[in-house]
Amino acid sequence: MVAIRAEGLSKRYVIGEYHAGYETLRESLTRGIRLVLRREHRAPHQEIWAIDDVSFEVAEGEIVGFIGRNGAGKSTLLKVLTRITAPTRGTAEIRGRVGSILEVGTGFHPELTGRENVFLNGSMLGMTRREVRARLPAIVEFSGVEKFIDTPVKRYSSGMYVRLAFAVAAHLDPEVLIIDEVLAVGDHEFQQRCMGRIEEIGRSGRTVLFVSHDMAAVARLCDRSYCLDGGRIILEGPSEEIVAKYLQMMSGAGAEAAWSDIETAPGSELVRLRSARVVDTSGAAVDAIDVRQPVGIELAFTVLRSGKPFFPKIKVTDERGAVAFNALDTHPRWHEPTEPSDYVATAWIPGNLLNEGQMSVDVALASIDAPKFHHHVNLSRLLTFHVQDAGEGDSAKGRFTGQLQGVVRPLLDWTLQRE
User: Fold this and answer.
1) I want to staple 259 with a disulfide (CB 3.0 to 4.6 A). Which of 33, 162, 250, 265 is the partner?
2) Residue 226 has what pLDDT?
3) Which residue would you say has higher pLDDT here, 413 or 248?
4) Is the distance from CB of 3 to CB of 60 less than 8 angstroms?
5) What is the mean pLDDT of residues 27-35?
6) Are residues 373 and 356 in contact, defined by beta-carbon separation less than 8 angstroms?
């Protein structure tokens, strides 16, 4: 059954001087005088469509992600869905009670204590006082604000606000949970607890809409994802594929690069690179790869003449620019000059080595001018691909659902002896 349906949702804003719906006489007079004084210099109002003709459906029990750069329309879309703001045109239908965390303190009254706000939010969701009281211990324990639960929330820090807001939204049994990037305010430990709770909610058959700039979290938590740009949906599909394509759009690189003209292909008078690809074990180019599976970096090149020995080389870095490793082919076949011809060399990265996230690959064809490399081809960040962990327990993370630190995350052989 469909839990959320949006058809042609659009929201228009006017860029210009703010005009409140209700004004005092003094405010009206002041605004009128300003308009007269600025009339000759006043620029015409401009309109922007924060979201423009957005349509989608979410089935009950799905966890769906929305990604995109800042200003793409993600937060506006969620505000329309939660009826914080009305759409300019289009319709949206949500079945069931909705719990949302869109901004720090959304739905909280600053003068009320944390405990009072829990009951207030529960009543807004249609719950009885008895139902809220039964869930209160779990909410307080999860939030970690036991000492301050009877303190007015206006004295809470941003992190405390978020902790309590998420705990309330996640434990008061809404049929639909809508979460914006606000979770980023919390510390790392709390973010991991939130991710685990979202997974629990999804397994319980409830629906989650999740907006985040944490691509690893979106790929791990969400069944499907939508990518917004300029207020429109530009990509939709399985999360790992959409995340990979989005990150490639942002970096300007992809899983393939090719040159049709050998004369203009990168290289030297000795060798030229024809193409480079990220491939799976079947030889197909891939944007995303399961962390447990091997992934190949394929280099196709043409040797123009026999000359100084050279060899293929790659460097892999994560999305923060940290180097995972450099690797070069040390086989004796590269100790002698290579005969002129077309060649394809593939470097295989084993499964359960790289960590989750976006990886970039530098590709090179190099000789050795001791103690340095002499590069015939050296292309930085030519390829990108996304490493996805399905979280099924047979990866290097085991049953841990959080994000391990580091560029690599190898599955090591462990031994155990009982003394």
Assistant:
1) 265
2) 95
3) 413
4) yes
5) 71
6) no
Beta strand extents in 21-85 (DSSP E only):
46-59, 63-67
Q: Spell out the alpha helix ranges (H) of 172-307.
A: 188-203, 215-221, 239-251
Structure tokens at 189: 């430990």
Where would I find the H helices in 285-370? none
Helices (H) and strands (E) in the chain, counts: 8, 18
Cα separation, 205 vs 167, whole angstroms: 18
Rounded distance between C-alpha atoms, residue 142 and residue 172, angstroms: 13
**How far out from the chain centre does Cα 250 lie?**
12
Q: Using CA atoms, how far apart are residues 210 and 121, in angstroms rounded to an integer?
A: 20
Which residue's structure tokens are 């100084």? 308
Please state whether the peptide bond connecting residue 350 to the residue before it is cis, i.e. omega within 30 degrees of 0.
no
Are the beta carbons of 275 and 258 closer than 8 angstroms? yes
CA 251 remoteness from chain centre: 14
**Residue 49: Cβ-neighbour burial (10 angstroms; 0-12, 13-18, 19+):** middle
Q: What are 7-30's pLDDT values in tens digits?
A: 999 999 877 655 555 567 777 777
Task: Give the side-chain half-sphere CA count within 13 A for 53.
Answer: 1
Helix 158-171 and helix 188-203: axis angle, to 10°? 10
Identify the burial level of 193 via C-beta atoms within 10 angstroms of its C-beta, where 0-12 means exposed, 13-18 middle and 19 or more buried: buried
What is the rounded distance in angstroms from the CA atom of residue 107 to the CA atom of residue 118?
Answer: 10
List Cβ neighbours of 293 (8 Å cut-off, separation of 6 or more).
Answer: 280, 281, 351
**What DSSP state is assigned to residue 186?**
S
Q: Identify the burial level of 104 via C-beta atoms within 10 angstroms of its C-beta, where 0-12 means exposed, 13-18 middle and 19 or more buried.
A: middle
In this predicted structure, what is the pLDDT of residue 405? 81
Render pLDDT for 282-316 as a digit per residue (tens, 0 to 9). Answer: 999 999 899 999 999 999 999 999 888 999 999 99
Check if the beta carbon of residue 52 is closer than 8 Å to that of residue 232: yes
Q: Where are the beta strands (DSSP E) in 239-356?
A: 256-258, 271-279, 288-290, 295-303, 311-318, 323-328, 341-349
Are the C-beta atoms of 22 and 28 separated by less than 8 Å? no
Q: Are 299 and 336 within 8 A, CB to CB?
A: no
Question: What is residue 335's DSSP assignment?
Answer: S
pTM of the model: 0.68
